[in-house]
Every structure is written in structure tokens, then in C-alpha cells.
Amino acid sequence: MTIFNRQRLDNTVFKLDIERMRRGWYSDKYFENVYCMLTALATSGYRYDGQYPRDIEVDTDDMDVGNMVVETQVFTRRKGSTVVVGVDKALTMLRHCAGYFDEDSNFVETYDQLEVWAIHDGAVVNYPPKGNAGDGDPRFVQPAMIIRGRYRDFALLETPILGALSRGSRIATNVYQTMVAARGKPVLFFPARFDAHEVQAADGYAYDVAVQRFNHDYSQHTPALVSTDAQGDYWGSQGIGTVPHAVIACFLGDTAAAMVVFASTLPPEVSRIALVDFNNDNVTGSLRTLKAMFDRYRELMDAENGEEARKYILHGVRLDTSRSVRDANVPPLGDPELDLGVNPRLVFIVREALDHAWEGWNLPPEWEERAKGYCRAVNIVVSGGFNPKRIRRFEQLGVPADSYGVGSSLMSNDAIVGTNTDFTADVVRIQVKGQWVDMAKVGRAPCDNPEMERAMWGG
């Protein structure tokens, strides 16, 4: 599964579309073309008869091109470091889809004839700088995987293998960078609404691996928090969340009423986090909800019904103000970064209001300290357009945000700003009469990665 438990996921998790993958349904067309060509050459007994072979110190007579055995290395072209995810899925593709169709159209698996070396999900690979340009040198890469075997047996799988690694590593690397920016505060995984539902399970797994990697590197225990059950599918977690803006509209914009009914309906294990920006007044929304929840909590505690009272503990408020508007509590300064959306000033204002709300509740003396603790235990979740740059600014300013809800930026794939994690693959050696011969295109070279392990094929 990851470098942290040294186990591999298999197809009971991935549920690959094996039949169509074997036939090239998910492959770039030129891989299907070359598979057909090499198969035809192998069937006809063709031997290399060209005139301009690269000069190599091995006799090239009688070379069986159709059954050529090659060494392919798979690596990322991303600048700097990449948290790799997608290795187990790539290995599963090789396990079930490497092979060929015989003359009776039966698929013959040849995975056991491949020699595959691979790192584990969660490992980090680095792309070394080239001179002072910092754009990387593809002659000195750290492969995530090396495949040795007859090329036509796995040629069709290059496209889906690279796709699995690129997508998973993109999510994981973006999450990792966001976690670093947040200094270990929870980063809630909110990108489900920005992509097709079919990718949720794989994306959620990549997110969890990144959180594990961050915790490992920084000796933290930050939880992995996803918004859908599908995102937790690979690793046995469930989505979290409370209410959307839509349900507040159903309660006529009354956030407090919506949260009290929510609390009365859902089990206490579901965190009570109020979305308080519906009326563009986060302070009023927070304070009204806080008071309504506390009053019910106090009533039940006085009635010695502690179990029911747990339902009315307000765990947090979420600020999600649109970046096109200024909250009613933020005095204008004429700077969009300081005025609009969920900005640092707004979070400080809400925190101050929450901490001192109990002072105006006219409580009996025996409830004052408990009310104070209740108010100050309410966390602030911020969301709405957050990315590592914006989070770093919040952290540098000491903004009292307890966690960050992050969505579309976790899927960013921008080569200009260095967030892309695109993988590629090269044939770097071929086997000629039992000897491995370098045959990389100019500018590439065979490389190694000491973190790779020999793949041991399961069922």
C-alpha cells in the first residue's frame, strides 16, 4: 500500500476494466498500432534487415524484432520533489493485462515473464537540476518503475500506467505541499465537486498517502479528512461534513435553526461544524448558532442527560465567504486581499467574537467557566479558494484558523509554476543475444533508484 507498511494494493481495490484494457481501449492509438505491428512481425518470423543500426558492440544478425525484450524506465519530469502515488495500480495493470491474444482470441498472461522493479506509493523522487536552469536533466532521473520483458506484452499499458502515476502523484504532491504550508493543521480534502466522480477513490487514496508522508517527515499526527465515502474507499475511511448552504436556504437563512435541527437529527459522532457565511455576516451567524447550540447543551446537562447533550457541542464554524464580497464585519481598506472573501482580518474578528460570546449570556456563576470553555473550544475552518500560497500567508500572520478546506488547487497541474507531475517512459536498453545494450534516445539514459523493490506477483 505505501512505504509505511510495505504492502501492495491489488485488483480487489482497483477493480480494473481488465478486458478492455487488454485490448487497448485506454491506450494511445500508436501503442495499439505498434502492438499489431510487432505481433505481425513475430508471426511472420521477420528479422531486422535495416541498413543504419546504431553502432553497438554486439552481433545484430538474426535479430527478432517482433519479440524484442526491452528495459523501460518510468519517471517524472517534475522539477524538484514528487510524492509518488499510482505504483500499486500500475503493477496491477501489469499483473492482469500484460500478455497477448493467441490465434483463438484467448488472452495469454505473461506477467510472470516480466522483471519489474518499483518503489512504493508514498516514496519521494527528485528530478535533479540541469546546470543553473533548474529544469532537470533526464539523463539523471530517479525511476519510479523499471519493466524488463518482451515489449509487445506490455506496450499497450504505457498510457494507463503513466496516467495512474501522473494523476495520483499530482494529487499527493499538491496535498503534501499544502500540508507543509498549513504547518500540520488539518487540510480537508474538498475537490470532489471539481472532477468526474469516477476518480474520487483514487484521488482520496493519493490524499491519504500524502498526509501519511507529511506526518512521517514532520513527526505529526494530522488526520486525513475527506468529504465523500468514495474518497475513503481504498483505505477504509468515510466522508465528513455537516450542512451545505442549500439547507440553510431551506431554513429561510436561519443558520442557527438549521444547526440545532441538524444536531438533533444526526448521531453525536458527526462533527457539528456550522457554515456561517450565508448572510455575509460571519460574526452574527457564528454567535447566533453558538448561543442556540449552547442553550440546548446546557438544558440537557442540567437535566443530567449528558449523552443527548453531546449532540449540541459545536465543534466549529466554517467561513466560506465568496472572494467577490466583503463580510459585513470587515471595515473596508481598499485592498481586495484584506477586504474580500475569507481574509485574515475576518478570521481574527470571528475568533474574538467566539471567545467572548459567553460574557453576554447572563449565566449563573456555576456555568461561567463551562461556557467559556465551550466557546473557546469552537474551531474555525476556512475555505474558498485556498492554495499553498494563500495558506502560507495566513500562517505567517498567525491567523487563528484551525483547519483549511481545499479543493481545486489540489488538482493543479501547471508546468509554469512547477506543480506538474507528468510521468513519461523510455526504452533505455534492449536485449541482444542475451546481453543488455544501451538503446535510449539521445538525451536519456538508464538510471536506477535504490528505493525500488522487485515486484512479487500475487493473485
Short description:
36% of the residues lie in helices and 15% in strands. It has 15 helices and 16 strands.
Structure description:
The chain is of the alpha/beta class and 459 residues long. It folds into 2 domains: 11-173 and 416-454, Aldehyde Oxidoreductase, domain 3, CATH 3.90.1170; 241-406, TIM Barrel, CATH 3.20.20.70. It contains 15 helices and 16 strands. The strands form 4 sheets. It has a 6-stranded antiparallel β-sheet with strand order 15-14-1-7-5-16. Helix 15 (388-396) links the parallel strand 12 and strand 13 (403-406). The protein is elongated, with a radius of gyration of 28 Å.
Provide the fold topology.
Elements: H1 11-14, H2 18-22, H3 29-44, E1 69-76, E2 80-83, H4 87-97, E3 99-101, E4 107-109, E5 115-118, E6 124-127, E7 145-150, H5 151-154, H6 158-181, E8 187-189, H7 200-218, E9 225-226, H8 245-250, H9 255-265, E10 273-275, H10 282-302, H11 306-309, E11 316-319, H12 336-339, H13 344-356, H14 365-376, E12 379-383, H15 388-396, E13 403-406, E14 423-432, E15 435-438, E16 453-454
Parallel strand pairs: 8-9, 8-13, 10-11, 11-12, 12-13
Antiparallel strand pairs: 1-7, 1-14, 2-6, 3-4, 5-7, 5-16, 14-15
